[in-house]
Fold:
Amino acid sequence: MKAKILVVDDEPINVRLITEILTADYEIIEASGGKEAIEKMISEKPDIVLLDIMMPEINGYEVCKKIKQNELTRFTPVVMVTALSESEDKVLAIEAGADDFLTKPINFIELITRVKSLLRGKHFYDQLIESRERIAQQNEALQKARDELEVRVRERTAELTKANEALECSNEFSKTANIKLKKADEIKTQFLSVVSHELRTPLTPIKAQLQMILAGYFGELTEKQKKSLDMIMRNTLRQDRLVGDILDISKLEAGEMKFMMTRSNLNEVIVNAVETMIPLANPKNVILTLKQDIIPEILLDKDRITQVIVNLINNALKFTDSGGTIDVELSGAKDCAIIKVKDTGIGIKKEDQERLFRPFVQVDSSYGRKYEGSGLGLAISKGIITFHGGKIWIESEEGKGSTFQFTIPYIYENKDEKVKVNLFE
Amino acid sequence: MSKIMIVDDNRDIVETLKTIMEMENHQTEEAYNGEEFLGKVESARPDLVLLDVMMPGLKTKEILARLKERKLDLKIILVTVVRFSDQEKRILMTDFNIRDYITKPFDVPELITRVRAVL
Structure:
């Protein structure tokens, strides 16, 4: 775009002269008097003004002063054109704010050089203004962004404060709930311990007194007395076992069963369990055998695992007739030990097999009450094995016998001493 | 003949234990709670104490701690319904001079064997 030059002169000939020289490179706007010049300064926004001094109405100094006083035009370079070369004129011109001078008769090369030089200055100035505006705009945008940010920070802070309050509130709530839960837990533990004590205490003198009577400490017994006392004794022992089983089940269910995990030799545990059962197998004419691989030491509760093995052998004995066999087998798999108790008993129907591990389930009433038990042994065994991270299951064929099996992983992963085992699912 | 102190809040159990100990030709003395036991034990000087674990009043731990404080070197068999862990057993034996324990309902021949072993 061409730069605009406003030429102000009351002599049309002068205007035309200047126009002819500059018109090829610049856009020329003409004004024949001071008033018109000031108007065009506003409407045309020229880049440079060539201003004649000697004009009627308002002279060039006044026009220059007005241009320099107006905010919109004050930075537009003004070149005073004068016929005089007196220094007094120049002083007046400088006072009026002129940027440069040209003396009439105009030297055209000088005119072009001065215009170019002043335009260069004006160009820099314009760039400066522009960049200042840009900076101002950027500043404004920045300020706006900062304000917005501040508002958002305030909003967010308010939200956070609120969330914090809510959290504190819920913390307080869960603290109370926790205290209540802990209390309930304590009550439960205490309850089981009291029940355990209260149920066993009466059995203590009953059993001891019976043993003394039966042993003849208080005099000899008749056959009938002995038979009667034997029956009382049998049922007392059964009651004792039942109390023990019910407490075990309750503790497993409540997560109150205390396990004492120690690194143990499973081979030894099994040998001991089988040996305690031999005196029960012999009178029934059932052969009890043991076959085992050597197993690395495993973290387990010796007493509880013994309880499981004894319980499985006991079950097998109950359902195996004279002349049958019970084979106990311990083998090592890749990541667990497998214990099998295989009998040649009556077997269990497929549909009964799953229910078997639930509490208070006795396989089938058709087997009759001949096979007495609490109906809790397998459920307790399942709880104990589950705690150890193992599995327990049965494979059986009706009439041919059953094989109960369970696993104990070599690596015990449960860090907690107490684990709730849901046995009723 | 030894002197056995029987401590239990249940009178029938005390009576039963007394009968068994007398059958073994021992002399007996009874206490029905921790306070009574602690009050009598010094003058009674028993050779063995059969101590119930869960009595109203003083807790077993407290009874054992007080005995320890008084430096009474007593042989004690605990009569309990609870199962002790190996660690608990170790502490009971080394710190409180517990010689053995027997669980309720106990077996008479087993009790006699354990008492004989400790005496």
About this structure: Helices of chain B lie at 11-23, 34-44, 60-69, 86-96, 108-118. The longest helix of chain B spans residues 11-23. The two ends of chain B are 10 Å apart (CA to CA).
